[in-house]
Automatic annotation (TrEMBL):
<feature type="transmembrane region" description="Helical">
    <location>
        <begin position="40"/>
        <end position="57"/>
    </location>
</feature>
<feature type="transmembrane region" description="Helical">
    <location>
        <begin position="287"/>
        <end position="304"/>
    </location>
</feature>
<dbReference type="InterPro" id="IPR037294">
    <property type="entry name" value="ABC_BtuC-like"/>
</dbReference>
<keyword id="KW-1133">Transmembrane helix</keyword>
<feature type="transmembrane region" description="Helical">
    <location>
        <begin position="96"/>
        <end position="115"/>
    </location>
</feature>
<dbReference type="GO" id="GO:0005886">
    <property type="term" value="C:plasma membrane"/>
</dbReference>
<dbReference type="GO" id="GO:0033214">
    <property type="term" value="P:siderophore-iron import into cell"/>
</dbReference>
<keyword id="KW-0812">Transmembrane</keyword>
<protein>
    <submittedName>
        <fullName>Iron ABC transporter permease</fullName>
    </submittedName>
</protein>
<dbReference type="InterPro" id="IPR000522">
    <property type="entry name" value="ABC_transptr_permease_BtuC"/>
</dbReference>
<feature type="transmembrane region" description="Helical">
    <location>
        <begin position="256"/>
        <end position="275"/>
    </location>
</feature>
<keyword id="KW-0813">Transport</keyword>
<feature type="transmembrane region" description="Helical">
    <location>
        <begin position="211"/>
        <end position="236"/>
    </location>
</feature>
<dbReference type="Pfam" id="PF01032">
    <property type="entry name" value="FecCD"/>
</dbReference>
<keyword id="KW-1003">Cell membrane</keyword>
<keyword id="KW-0472">Membrane</keyword>
<feature type="transmembrane region" description="Helical">
    <location>
        <begin position="167"/>
        <end position="190"/>
    </location>
</feature>
Length: 311
């Protein structure tokens, strides 16, 4: 977080950071620090939300490929926001967050329903295929809605990439209550997810209400994903890689895995934002691009070492 405030297309001294914290923006350095402080906070909370959301999704579905991006939940939230803006004139920040959460929930239910069809129920492979197909379809719908609308097309296209560059304290304040509820619900689901990992029959035998436990955990994940997408766009890959990394560090106990996934997600997104500012000076790469560039080779290396089998 400290590096995120001082490093960028223009380096900022600590005296400027201190002055910015006091409300001053008289110099260029102080103005830069004033913009980077909310940007850093947004990167941390969005990264934590996506990392935790991915870990919960993988626990709920018992699917190592589960992720808000892979399952199409990010795109469901994005489509709902674009439809709300283009057709219903939704520009209120709170309305956009609620719309994104509804869209994320709808996409999650649809993908799980499609992935549950046929023999064997919702297998990891069927869920991944259903999510990928749904995500591709939703991207097409978003493009079809936004392109004819010249007044919103450019902003929608930029937002779809995913980034935290336009962060403000007002935007963080709007989305923070939704994220806090999502964090609380998800973290309180840790024991239930441990039981679900043993299988539905054994979890029920241990006294777990399987449907309620799975629904509650999924609700927390959808809240996190929808709120994060509303404020930063559909950033992918964080929720896929982070839980796998954290399992290698702390094991499969969700009481440890979930908080570590939140911390690691915040670290990954903040570090990716810093890299995006440095590699393309004086311009910058959106953090959604950088997370894919950083995360994909790392995830491939995990698969090549065959450690995913142990997860």
């Amino acid at each position: 977080m400290a590096a995120s405030v001082v490093v960028g297309s223009r380096d900022v001294g600590w005296s400027d950071v201190v002055a910015a914290l006091g409300g001053s923006s008289d110099t260029i350095g102080q103005a830069a620090a004033t913009k980077r402080i909310p940007r850093t906070l947004l990167a941390v909370v969005v990264g934590a939300a996506l990392g935790l959301s991915g870990a919960v999704m993988q626990g709920v579905t018992r699917n190592p490929l589960a992720d808000p991006g892979v399952l199409g939940i990010n795109m469901g939230a994005s489509l709902a926001v674009v439809v709300g803006i283009a057709w219903f004139g939704l520009f209120s920040a709170t309305a956009i967050v609620w719309t994104a959460i509804v869209g994320a929930a709808g996409a999650a239910v649809f993908v799980y329903a499609v992935g549950s069809l046929g023999r064997g129920g919702a297998t990891p492979l069927k869920l991944a295929l259903a999510g990928t197909a749904t995500s591709a379809a939703l991207v097409s719908f978003i493009t079809a809605i936004a392109l004819p609308r010249g007044d919103i097309a450019e902003s929608v296209q930029s937002w779809e990439i995913g980034g935290v560059g336009g962060a403000t304290f007002d935007a963080i304040g709007t989305v923070l209550p939704f994220l806090l509820v999502g964090f609380a619900v998800s973290l309180l689901s840790a024991r239930s997810l441990n039981s679900l990992a043993l299988g539905d029959e054994l979890a029920a035998g241990l006294g777990e209400r399987v449907v309620l436990a799975r629904g509650t955990a999924a609700l927390g994940s959808v809240l996190l994903c929808g709120a994060a997408t509303a404020v930063a766009g559909p950033i992918g890959f964080v929720g896929l890689v982070v839980p796998h990394l954290c399992r290698l560090l702390v094991g499969v106990d969700h009481r440890w895995l979930l908080p570590f996934s939140a911390i690691a997600g915040g670290c990954l997104l903040t570090a990716s934002d810093i890299v995006g500012r440095i590699v393309a000076r004086p311009s910058e790469l959106d953090v959604g691009i950088v997370t894919a560039l950083i995360g994909a080779p790392f995830f491939i290396s995990i698969v090549r070492r065959q450690k995913v089998r142990e997860l």
